[in-house]
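Typical record was shown:
=====
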Amino acid sequence: MTKQPPDRSPRTVDCPPPPDGCAATAGEPCLSHGGTRVRHSFHQARTAAWEAARIAAVPAANLIFDAKARRGMHGKDAAELLDKNGYSVEAEQLRRAVSEAHGHMSARQAIAFLVDHAEGGEGQ
């Protein structure tokens, strides 16, 4: 597991209640064994909630996420969708990323690219 800065970690959201999580509040580590042991990772439900919050914070990524849920989509298709919906800057960034990946980019990877880019991660 790669170590992430505190602000880029599932720890920034609440862990869902049992049985999916441990109900740890944001900032607190996940617990296991009925709350007696600190986990060295996060519950899957907490990671899913964190990813959903990250995607929701980036409107262009959220648009692709919603469209991807309705049908399969490629990174190139995601760029076209963004362009048609007024996200021309993000569409161009995504087109460049698809080109640099030699056309190999899924909609999921496109969403991750946009979220990372918005957070000041790779690509900036």
Summary: The chain has five helices and two strands. The mean pLDDT is 87.
